[in-house]
Amino acid sequence: MWLDTLIPSKRIQDGVMSTRKYKQIVSSINEVGLIEPLSILHPDAKKSEYLLLDGHLRVLALKELGLH
User: Fold this and answer.
1) Which of 21, 37, 41, 46 could form a disulfide with 51 if both were Cys (CB 3.0 to 4.6 A apart)?
2) Confidence of residue 1 (pLDDT cuts 50, 70, 90)
3) Does 7 have pLDDT greater than 80?
4) Is 58 exposed, middle or buried (0-12, 13-18, 19+ CB in 10 A)?
5) Distance from CA of residue 30 to its chain's centroid?
6) For residues 59 and 29, what is the distance between their CA atoms, to the nearest angstrom?
7) What are the backbone dihedrals phi and psi of residue 8, each rounded to the nearest 5 degrees, phi first?
8) C-alpha of 59 from chain center
9) Could you give the CA distance from residue 54 to residue 56 in angstroms, rounded to a whole number?
10) What does 3-68 look like in DSSP terms, one character per residue?
11) Are 63 and 3 in contact (CB under 8 A)?
């Protein structure tokens, strides 16, 4: 459940899961896996939370595919 430690830095807009771009990301991850890494920051070493800077749609796709 490592995706649960990520804190999004921006809000995902409603309806994004029905866009062509999102569906392509899901398909790509399902076919070949995660190619482009997520961009994260560990602002507080005392906590096990990470700030997600880039890759919000990829995280959403990973969760949808059950790859967390």
Assistant:
1) 41
2) low
3) yes
4) buried
5) 14
6) 10
7) -65, 145
8) 1
9) 6
10) GGGEEESSPPPTTGGGSHHHHHHHHHHHHH---SPPEEE---TTSS-EEEEE-HHHHHHHHHTT--
11) yes
Q: Which residue has the tokens 């392509």?
A: 24
23/42 Cα distance (integer angstroms): 29
What tokens were used for 49? 């939370």
Whole-model pTM: value is: 0.89
CA dist., res. 63 & res. 57, Å (int): 10
Residue 32 corresponds to which tokens in the numbers above?
Answer: 């070949």
Residue listed under structure tokens 């569906």: 23
